[in-house]
Amino acid sequence: PHLASSHLKKAELIKGVVYMPAARRFKSHGQPHGQLITWFGVYASLTPGVALDDAPTVRLDFDNEPQPDAVLMIEEHCGGQARLSNVLTNLQQGLTSPEHKTFVQKLVKDNPSQ
Length: 114
What we know:
Layout: E1 12-14, E2 17-19, H1 26-46, E3 50-54, E4 70-74, H2 87-95, H3 98-110
């Protein structure tokens, strides 16, 4: 549901509840964020096998998708256990699944006029 609201710039799903953060202020958020990204960027550039991302959505499970300000991740080839999802691959797998076929059949049955 929170993904359907494309006008939202940042929304987090935590334990099944969508949260909208307060406005970001320069001194209390923007400036420290810039310093953190700089520090993380220097660290990542000097540490092989570490990747940096700025404000990614992190899917922990079906009910939890926080959007931290920054993430440092150990890359998979260096032993990291986090996995980056390929949205297109995941979508294709979902559309070809038996569960999707059953879902579509139920929609057609429940809405015969369409």
